[in-house]
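Dock iron/sulfur cluster; give full complex structure.
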Amino acid sequence: MALTGLEIFKQLPQTNCKDCAFPTCLAFAVALASGKVTPEKCPHLSASARAMLTTAFAPPMALIKIGPPGQELVIGNETVLFRHEKRFEHAPGLAVLIKDNLPVAEITTKISYLSSVVFKRLGENYGLDLLALENCSGEPANFKKMVAVAIEKSNLPLILMSENPEAMAAVLSMAAQRKPLIYSAQSTNYQEMTGLAQKYNLPLAVKGKGLDELAALVEKITALGHEQLVLDTGARETSQVLFEQTQLRRLALNRFKPFGYPTIAFALDKDPIQSVVKAGVFLIKYAGIVVLTSDHPADLLSLITLRLNIYSDPQKPMAVESKIYPVGNPGKDAPVVITTNFSLTYYCVANDFEASRIPGYIIPVDTDGASVLTSWAAGKLTAEKISEALQNSGIAERVTHRKVIIPGGVAMLSKRLTGLSGWEVLVGPRESSGIPSFLKREWVP
Ligand code: SF4
């Protein structure tokens, strides 16, 4: 049960010294209760109060890192069941399964291809997060060959999948420095697998047959002293996985210690469409890693797009910085286009501007991340703000003309904007897709 502001207040020194940057201890207590600050911001806590508050405010789910520093996938530390309650902290990792019974040449091609897939969305590059390498042949030699190829051809974090501790030990002797996830410790092998995870300080996936066995297994492994865990209930049927993922998250948030770890789920249908649909379900609720069979770019892009929609912070608008963005290599007579700093709006305009093959400048006005009509309706896209953006951006030093193109949806601002800024205002198309034809038709510097 979360502490209330008043319960926290009772633990504070109550001197109102302001060293935490809050005016009173009560204000700090309220901020702490709502998760806006952490206990260490008060430097005057007694040892017992510090211990009590640190425990009370520690995330109910452990943070797990897979992969070498700088390239690692970070999962866990989740604190809510629903995104709108606060936010989901870490987006789940997407992995594609590769089996070691394929010819080495095919494995090499697949690993090279998966490691190079990149999609550009909203100005960022996205790709696959992990390779899941399965020792399905049962032959340690095949497993070693596949892992050797992955080490040579890919920088992606690895999931090493074998139930055989000897095969796992053989590949870890060459792959441990890549900080892979060991999959998996089960009731039959958990002591050996835990020993390997401890020897190399690696995260370990624990696979149970249902929630009860999983909880018991986790308790045995943590009693051995290993805490870097990822949970698998063993379910593979969609509704059962969904049910168990939800139970795991609920119980983790209720601080049931054995389930205080991120999870892994598998969408391994032969039919790639089924695999992707399942993976989408598990991305939403509540897997930390989703392993799928399909490696088609369209499937991966669908899942990455779905993940982007969910794993953004609902308290922060998706916005780009308000500054001058050149398109191509613009000269002194290049067109200047105004839009808002809502990421989606900006990137639509940027893509369509690029498509025109006419170099120019975009100035996204700071509208707190709202789109054109929303910001106009909310009074955030006004003639004053556009005039201010023109002046503050320094665009007047980059172009010799004084013409600016505003979105067609806010044509009503043109007269006032001309009066305020002294720039001639051209009313552009309502949709960014009209930019190429508009520029070709209308732009004369
Ligand atoms: S630093 Fe601690 S004692 Fe000082 S005002 Fe903040 S909460 Fe109170």
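Observed: The chain has a mean pLDDT of 94.
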